[in-house]
Amino acid sequence: MSTVRFVGSVILCGVALSQPGPAQAENPHPAPLTGLAPDHATISVENLDRTADWYQRVLGFKVAQRFDTNPDFLLEQLSIPGYRIDLVKYKGSVRPASVNPLYLQQGWVHVVFNVQDLPAAFKELQALNVNVAADKDANGVPTRLVMHDPEGNEIELVKRK
Asked: Is this structure's pTM higher than 0.90?
């Protein structure tokens, strides 16, 4: 009988040790990375020059660097303070033909930028003849702006409080 109790105690101890402790049970996810901040995004494009011109003209990006020595791809790095977008044209790359709306395609859906003054940004984009849609509040003040670059990639502008 004592052997059965001993084996039973060992099994119960093993089960107890395999259960998460109080700290683990409260937070099953590991701590987030410290110091995590956006750095850059890379967009594969068909027409590098046209798209780079659009990001410079419409969003104020500046050319940081251009790499054109590799026969398989061209890369242009565009930047604004605190952020960079890399536009890359891979040899043989194509945008898949799709009749589905953007949100039904897998992958990045859009890039969002925070701006200080949405109404002013809306007027500036209209002055640049950019096709921009605006969500507006009850007073007609823009709360969100949506546009597309020449490749069809969605860009959203918001004002975070």
From this structure: no
